[in-house]
Amino acid sequence: MAENDPEKKPEPKSEPGSKAAEKSADSAPPAKAPPTKGIRGWLLLLAVVVGAGLLIFASGKHLKNLGQVGEKLVEATKSAGSPTIGGRFTLTDMNGQTVTDKTYAGKYMLVYFGYTYCPDVCPTGLTEMSNTLDALGELADKIQPIFISVDPDRDTPEQLKEYTSYFHPRLIGLTGTHEQVAAAAKAYRVYYAKVASKDADADPDDYTFDHSAVTYLMDPKGVFVQHFSHGTSAENMAKRLREILNP
Q1: How far is CA 102 from the centre of its chain?
Q2: pTM
């Protein structure tokens, strides 16, 4: 209700030093300490995730919103100061080998989360990533492109190996247990949610994922450098990467 609402009657004021004023002061709850920066960061991120969750459609219904959602998630995290983007992960690569974030230390990483059954968002994002690497020429050798699946049930190492072969030859596909994938997604502040088919007779494996679509650039020490939202062209991505890789 607005402060100047004519229906709201003003509360009677107590004169300083009166019993009413003393009673009001005695009954007032103690002032709470202001929340820490980290708590504000998490609350801000939570608010963005809740609001953005309604806009994320990996099925392609709202493609133009994907970049906006990813942008909001990353910017909220960065502006809050805490939590950070990126961190430790333990996953399985497309050759069946266990890898961690340390496996790729010494190289920049372009990291993208998605799934191989994604109808259009992931293929679009990975195609732009591949075209970017081609445009960079020899500079691309400084970068390890990585595709992390959020669908460990269907995206086996074999499935990932075939899928990544359709894009860049150096693209590595990673999967893992549900817990491992969730931990990696949490580290990168990635939103994803399984969406079952509404068809009552649908196969149990007939489902999609809502997920944020952002490409993360990490430096050789695994520190977040910047992100590229969905829809960033290979030309613009390559231009920015040249500035970073060859200052």
Answers
A1: 21
A2: 0.70
CA distance 132 to 52: 28
Peptide bond into 83 cis (omega under 30): yes
Those residues whose C-beta lies under 8 Å from the C-beta of residue 16, and which sit 6 or more positions away, are: none
Nearest-angstrom CA–CA distance, 238 and 135: 7
Pairing state of beta strands 214-218 and 224-229?
antiparallel
Cα 86 to Cα 83: distance, rounded to the nearest angstrom = 9
Question: Could you report the per-residue pLDDT of 182-205, keeping only the tens digit for each?
Answer: 999 999 999 999 998 888 787 888
- Domains of the chain, first to last: 85-245 (3.40.30.10)
Q: Please count the other Cβ atoms lying within 10 Å of the Cβ belonging to residue 60.
A: 13
